[in-house]
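Table S2 (continued). Query chain:
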Amino acid sequence: MNARDAIFAAIRKARPGSEGPAAIESQARACSEAMKAALPTPESDDLAALFMARAGAEKVGATLERVVSLADLPKAVALYVEANGLGPDCSLQPDPRLQQLNWGALRPGAPLRPDSALAVGIALCGVAETGSLVFHSGPSAPTLYEFLPLHHLVALDAQTLLPRLEDYPAFVRGLAVPRNVNFVTGASGTTDIEGVLARGAHGPGRLHIVIFN
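Corresponding output:
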């Protein structure tokens, strides 16, 4: 008998254990608690400050600012547009929270294209430990908003900041999680060619995050 046959023979002879559903659930809970106990303590209790330090690091390449509320987002976008010499046209993620804001002189109805200069969106949550944004695809959050524009400006609710990546499963428990989930850490960049950092190789070359409370 060769090794392959021996393995399959062992599988065929295997018998289910005697543990019932309650015992299996208890074992799973114990494993979960052991995993939590092994996680490092966050470096700071101020998750927003920790997130900003991580996402704003030179290697990550995002720029950030804080505002009082989501209602301040249009003003932040207008200032970003002016500072970067962009036009008033931008593509707005079809999220009702963004659609109902007063965009003033900005024109947020531009269709999203591969050459779009600016898209404005909102993240599901953020991970403070890594400075990552989390996006769930759906009718109000098309995936291409994270990949097509040159400039991606993202609103992030400080109340949705998670200490660590391992806290994400608990955050989405009870939600309908789509097949497409994206964790975005900073602006797109690569050093594949001669070790020289090039921005915008696989997505937006500029990422600006507006954290609101």
